[in-house]
Amino acid sequence: MNNSFIIKGDFYFSSKERKLLNYNNSYCVVENGISQGIFKEIPEKYMNLQVIDHSGNMIMPGLVDLHLHASQYSFRGMGMDLELLQWLNEYTFPEEHNYADEEYADRAYQIFTDDLKRSYSTRAVVFGTIHTDTTLMLMEKLEKAGLYSYVGKVNMDRNAPDYYIEEAKDSITETKRFIEEALRRFKKTKPIITPRFIPTCTDTLMKGLAEIQKETQLPVQSHLSENRSEIEWVKELCPEAEFYGDAYDRFGLFGKGCKTIMAHCVSSTEMELERMRTNGVYVAHCPNSNMNLSSGIAPVRRLLDKGIHVGIGTDIAGGHTLSMLDEMVSAVQASKMRWRYIDEEEPITIIDAFYMATRGGGSFFGNIGGFDGGYEFDAIVIDDSTAATSKELDSVSRFVRVLNLGGECRIKEKYVGGDKII
Ligand code: GUN
Ligand code: FE
């Protein structure tokens, strides 16, 4: 596929300082899938490239969903009457167990992949299930869809029902097989080491995963400080850990030479946050999930101001929707409620949420989430004429409105790593 071209339109993206950048009626030069920057006029040396004209349309970076469970997509929007630990036992584990069945997995993962492909997301960091073969099947579908992702075969060897649990030894052997096959078969879809969370992983399993991590240098994803009962349980299970995150760090699975995403961090202590900052751990902020499961509201303004890496995750099916735009709006609303009811931290804005959903999470993948020279060209071309208004809008209002009304606009084209997938 030819992925050198020039694309014209109204560009919006975030600066490293979380400011909104806007270049109307401009050209982005893309060479071999990489942006060469945005120009008012086409530079002489690129005159021979094809121009794709989207004059009057908005172009923004694809969104990065930093945390979601593909295997839970089937029950999204249902069963949100329980808190985390009961929710896992009553809805989640029984559903994830279905992915032992290839036919079921094929159907369910196809629906998930088709919907993700149609969404504003260009990249995602995904949990499968404990089943190696159907998790590889999910990866094959994501690869075919042209999306970039990290996908994990889930590891869990305690505190789970006997129909959905592994022996530590088998979990390690299967994880090695999973990684070897995934690295051999896929280019855009990468394996990620995925201990579900401390309550379902013994020390033996964690040690085994840490060895795999050292050997392969692959990244890690898990859950952290999401729910109060969960945090109390971790204290009982790991009395030697200084705090929840330390229970991962003791095994070397918490940043610091081991790229790590921890979902939630709703109730992280100051010590935990400090360790995350110094270790470079990414937080996947999942406000819809945190509200649906009554987990709470993460201190996202504090995380950003502390200089912790923060991205946004839909956490399907704790979160009810795959829409990252919806998740961004919820992040702002949740932050406002935190400010009103919990502390005096200034709420985040939709522009902060846009930063987290693009550059913030995007940096986990590399130079992703902006149109700066050297960044991979992930882009959504938006036709906002479908969300009609009688008003004349300035550029910033037009963009903020589109973020808030996302579902009302039409995705005209979608590019991932310079390849057009819609
Ligand atoms: N903690 C451990 N497993 C899960 C899960 O599947 N979803 C959420 N939201 N939290 C978890
Ligand atoms: Fe999750």
Write a brief structural summary:
With 422 residues, this protein is α/β, with parallel strands linked by helices.
The largest beta-sheet arranges its strands as: 3-2-1-4-15-16-17
**Percentage of residues in strands:** 15-25%
Low-pLDDT segments: none
| N- to C-terminal distance | 14 Å
Structural summary, described in words:
This protein is of the alpha/beta class and 422 residues long. It has helices spanning 84-97, 102-118, 132-145, 168-185, 203-216, 228-237, 244-249, 270-279, 287-292, 300-306, 324-341, 350-362, 395-404; strands at residues 5-14, 20-31, 34-39, 51-61, 63-69, 121-127, 148-152, 154-155, 189-191, 194-195, 220-224, 260-264, 282-285, 309-312, 379-383, 410-416, 419-420. The strands form four sheets. It has a seven-stranded mixed beta sheet. Helix 2 (102-118) packs parallel to helix 3 (132-145). The site of fe (iii) ion (FE) has 6 residues, from strand 5.
Features:
7-stranded mixed β-sheet, single chain, alpha/beta, binds guanine, binds fe (iii) ion
Task: Please specify the SSE layout and strand pairing.
Elements: E1 5-14, E2 20-31, E3 34-39, E4 51-61, E5 63-69, H1 84-97, H2 102-118, E6 121-127, H3 132-145, E7 148-152, E8 154-155, H4 168-185, E9 189-191, E10 194-195, H5 203-216, E11 220-224, H6 228-237, H7 244-249, E12 260-264, H8 270-279, E13 282-285, H9 287-292, H10 300-306, E14 309-312, H11 324-341, H12 350-362, E15 379-383, H13 395-404, E16 410-416, E17 419-420
Parallel strand pairs: 1-4, 5-6, 6-7, 7-9, 8-10, 11-12, 12-13, 13-14
Antiparallel strand pairs: 1-2, 2-3, 4-15, 15-16, 16-17
Bound molecules: guanine and fe (iii) ion.
